[in-house]
Amino acid sequence: MHAIEIQNLTKKFRIYADQGQSLKEKLLSKKRRKYEERTVLDGISLTVEPGEAIGLVGKNGSGKSTLLKLMSRILYPDGGSVKLNGRVSSLIELGAGFHPDMTGRENIFTNASIFGLTHKEIEARLDEIIEFSEMQEFIDNPVRTYSSGMYMRLAFSVAIHVGADILLIDEILAVGDAAFQAKCFERLMEIKAAGTTIVIVSHSMAQLERICDRTVWIDGGKLRMEGAPNEVHPAYLDFMGQRRQLSAPVKAAEQTEKAETPARWTDICLLNEQGERITQFRTGDTVTLQMTYEADPEQAEAALIGLALYRADKALCYGTNTQRERMQPLKLKARGTVRCTFSPMNLIAGTYWFDVGLRRMDMFAYDYAAQAVRFTVYNTIDETGVARLAHQWQTDTD
Fold it and tell me: Which of 10, 154, 230, 263 could make an SS bond with 300 (beta carbons 3.0 to 4.6 A apart)?
């Protein structure tokens, strides 16, 4: 028997052009009764085995969260069927089922009862729920006084202590401090080992690769690909990288062309070891930043090239230029290509970009490409920081 069985699932939503606020407005205005019907899920079929952990990935608006809400019966399908065998616990919306004026302790009883626990069962697990949430100091305060991280701690602690056969999680683990996130994932691994079926929506490939046996990629409401995480994630990240790939070099060239610059970038990209263009790679891969320019050799003076590597939160990770590295000035030709190879590229999992500058030796800018190439790094190890440092572990077993 499957833990979850989904057959030809379809869900549509009505998007009203001008939705009235009162009954009178809705009755008097025909325009407010006009709507567009959008198909969010279109013929999804999926089975999940008992004890299996699967991850749902896809760009925002692809239907992942809607699918999870259909599994948890928050929403109901317009077509097809969803069958779940066993007790279901879900973490879909932060604080769902919590009453702001009730204390954390009171909300534990209310929330756990929604999941099907009796009062006696909740009392037996109460101390363990509070201890895991680390909310002892605030447990008798109204939850309206809680921060989002405190909400998450309590909600997660309740959800994992109800003894569910199926656990549904929607990106909620992105809330909270790093230490508690790590604690949550350790507990999820224990729950998985105990035979609980887990379905989790996340944009963190590293997290999914740690816990999931299978990844399901949803695109435009349809199941685009499913399989082992190390098969689906590269294809998904490459697709997302191509969508996000910015045309900054072209824009920069258009802007500097008006100033009649004697040199400009024409193409900037990342290459793998086979010389193929890429927008995603694993930590430790060899990666080449390839920069192509065109110039007027009679007007362009010798130049230098500068690189700045930024993380998605705009933190500067690394910066250098050819002058600082004591390289000879670049004598510009009519057309030329410069490559900078990183072997290995030991960035940890995340999204990054390169800014690339082409300058005279006096630092006057011929061309500057902001966010010239954007890329994603993924890895099975959930590290923190910016880069993986070479290291070895040793333990004294005597």
Answer: 263
- CATH code at position 284: 2.70.50.60
Rounded Cα gap, residues 397 and 165, in angstroms:
39
Tell me, yes or no, whether 383 lies in a domain: no
Based on the domain organization, do 186 and 264 belong to the same domain? Answer: no
pLDDT in tens, 67-126: 998 998 888 899 999 999 988 888 876 556 688 899 999 999 988 888 888 899 999 999
Distances from the Cα of 379 to the Cα of 9, 261, 299, angstroms: 32, 41, 46
Instruction: Provide CB contacts within 8 A for 367, sequence distance 6+.
Output: 252, 253, 256, 261, 263, 264, 265, 293, 357, 358
Type of residue at 112: A
pLDDT tens readout for residues 354-383: 999 999 888 788 998 988 998 988 887 777
Q: Give φ, ψ of 391 to 5 degrees.
A: -160, 165
Q: At which residue do the structure tokens 């109204």 appear?
A: 142
Sign of the Cα torsion 97, 102, 107, 109 reads: negative
Peptide bond into 142 cis (omega under 30): no
Q: Distance of alpha carbon 127 from its chain centroid, rounded?
A: 33
pLDDT digits (tens, 9 = 90+) for 161-210: 888 899 998 876 655 666 777 778 788 888 888 899 999 998 777 678 77
pTM of the model: 0.62
Domain count, the chain: 2
